Amino acid sequence: MQLEGRRKSSNVEDRRRISGGTVAGVGVGGTIIVVLLSMFLGRNPQEVLQQIQSQNVTTVDNQREFTKEEQELADFASTILASTEDVWTEVFKKMGRTYRAPKMVLYTDAVQSGCGNATSAVGPFYCSADECLYIDLSFFSTMKQQLGADGDFAYAYVIAHEVGHHVQHLLGTLDQAHAQMSRMNEKDANKVSVRIELQADFYAGVWGYYENKTFQSLDDGDLKEAIECAAVIGDDYLQTKARGGFNPESFTHGSSNQRMKWLKLGLTTGDMSRGDTFSVPESQL
Predict the structure, then answer these.
(1) Which of 39, 99, 162, 180 could potentially form a cystine with 126 if both were Cys, beta carbons 3.0 to 4.6 Å apart?
(2) Domain that holds residue 62
(3) Closest CA to 32 of 154, 199, 130
(4) Using H for helix, E for strand and C for coil, what is the string for 230-272?
(5) Looking at the domain assignment, is residue 7 inside a domain?
(6) Using one digit for the tens of pLDDT, what is the confidence trace for 131-180?
């Protein structure tokens, strides 16, 4: 991505020197971490998740200095967040709405959010209760080392996906979907969760479309990075990597093909009317 001279967001709270908490839920990256931990430990992913949720971590490290790479990642994340602010402000204006930007909280190891406490094992996540997205930047190293998903646009896609959940929240679809899930059994709730995540992928693509249209910041290699990232965080890919097979009924984020499909649809069209994943028959997701 070409980002030289671009502004950084003022909606960033850096808590990397102070963190603590207990896991509240699993975000887009949490599936990756939990499944990989299970694979290496030879255990059931649910058991690993329950063990993570029982942990309580508190860290205070006011003296720690960040490496050049760590600070560059923080600056990069802030620049991407600023881009999402610019894009979604204009998209919402076209819809006759006002965009309210989320805050991005950077943390290390564990954090307290409006949705409860969490460790970095849950991966990047969005909390609608406080309208914040939370990310431990070491997640990008996990993407690169464990899954081979690397590149600045791949990292930008992860941030844009979480901002996509904020867009869903502002439009009312996220809260409606969560209310629906609370009345369902696990199997049916998982199906709704997949639709939530695929729409967030689509919105990440919409952001990429307008980012490139406005700044000509992307090339074919950038697009390839994001699509490959979507592929390796599909539920089928992760479950197969961990267990040698997969169970579609347990999917919560969508298959690799589904995630690539909706991300590409947003990237190529930028058309918000094409992203209603809740009305599409399951066979067409």
Answers:
(1) 162
(2) 12-284
(3) 154
(4) HHHCCHHHHHHHHHCCCCHHHCCCCCHHHHHHHHHHHHHHCCH
(5) no
(6) 999 999 999 888 888 888 888 999 999 999 999 999 999 999 999 999 99
pLDDT in tens, 34-90: 444 444 334 444 444 444 444 444 444 455 678 888 899 999 999 999 999 999 999
Coil, strand or helix at 141: helix
The answer to which of 28-32, 107-111, 202-206 has the lowest mean pLDDT is: 28-32
Q: Would strands 103-107 and 110-113 be described as parallel, antiparallel, or unpaired?
A: unpaired
pTM of the model: 0.85
The label of the residue with tokens 């298959």 reads 255
Find tokens 């406005």 and name the residue: 214
Query: For residues 267 and 176, is the Cβ–Cβ distance under 8 A?
Result: no
Q: How far apart are CA 242 and CA 39, in angstroms?
A: 5
**Rounded distance, CA 139 to CA 30, Å?**
10
Q: Parallel, antiparallel, or unpaired: how do β-strands 103-107 and 132-135 relate?
A: parallel
Interval 171-194: pLDDT, tens? 999 999 999 999 999 999 999 999
Tokens standing for 157?
């896609």
C-alpha distances in Å from residue 157, one per residue of 42, 90, 112, 164, 243: 30, 19, 24, 10, 27
Instruction: Please tell me the total count of domains within the chain.
Output: 1
**Residue 1 forms part of a structural domain:** no
Task: For the chain, count helices (H), then strands (E).
Answer: 10, 8
Q: Is residue 79 part of a domain?
A: yes
- The answer to the question of residue 5 being in a domain is no
Backbone φ and ψ of 125, nearest 5°: -150, 160
Look at the alpha carbons of 153, 159, 162, 166 in this order and tell me if their dihedral is positive or negative.
negative
